[in-house]
Amino acid sequence: RGAISFRDVQFAYDPARPILKGISFDIPAGHTVAVVGPSGAGKSTLSRLLYRFYDIQDGAITIDGQDVRSVTQTSLRAAIGMVPQDTVLFNDTIGYNIRYGRIDASQAEVEQAAQIAQVDQFIKTLPDGYKSMVGERGLKLSGGEKQRVAIARTILKAPPILILDEATSALDTRTEQDIQAALDEVSKNRTTLVIAHRLSTVIHADEIIVLKGGTIAERGTHSDLLAQN
Ligand code: ADP
Ligand code: ADP
Hints:
229 residues, alpha/beta, six-stranded mixed beta sheet, 34% helix, binds adenosine-5'-diphosphate
């Protein structure tokens, strides 16, 4: 599960200025694809179209062969984990922030306790970069650290597709490495990863799509692109 297909996708916020001018690509289930390109190329827009934050104006986007327009928002949200540019956290501990959304308050207390225990067990399995963060409060974290928390939440939900929109703030090398480690963990679960990105560590992607001027300027593996340039 988690195959993505774009067919002649067109999108504009303003009809006079198209952002995506007929974009087509297929991402097999479980692949990691990095969408790169200059600022303003439409990377964030492309990722938002996938979960229908915006609707496309022409073409089609399908997930596992199903047109996203025929899928309910609820099942789209279940299928797609989104790590936005600027993750908003509760001013509570990271443990709480990761647990949030996993605990079903309508269930009996015993069940809730079991869910909390399951999440706490999961937190113990997170890459080292998280361990020192778990007791920290959300608001104190840097942009990159907040993204790591959002990734952890998503790993726990284990959706077939995960979209990571690059952090707006520059990330230090250490944070980039921690995010990469978290993403490696995600891709082990056969999750399809779409990364709209500036991270220098694109090497881990199975494929790179270069957006420029509303079209796909280049696509291929990391070594394909290096060979062409
Ligand atoms: P980035 O280049 O980092 O992706 P953008 O400047 O494209 O950042 O977008 C930042 C935020 O502002 C996004 O939420 C986007 O939807 C919004 N935004 C960007 N450009 C416009 C615009 N011309 N009109 C309205 N909202 C915009
Ligand atoms: P990228 O992620 O590659 O930096 P975006 O998808 O954020 O690019 O933006 C592509 C173009 O669309 C930019 O020119 C941006 O200003 C514009 N844009 C983004 N969001 C909006 C919005 N909500 N309304 C109007 N224009 C937008």
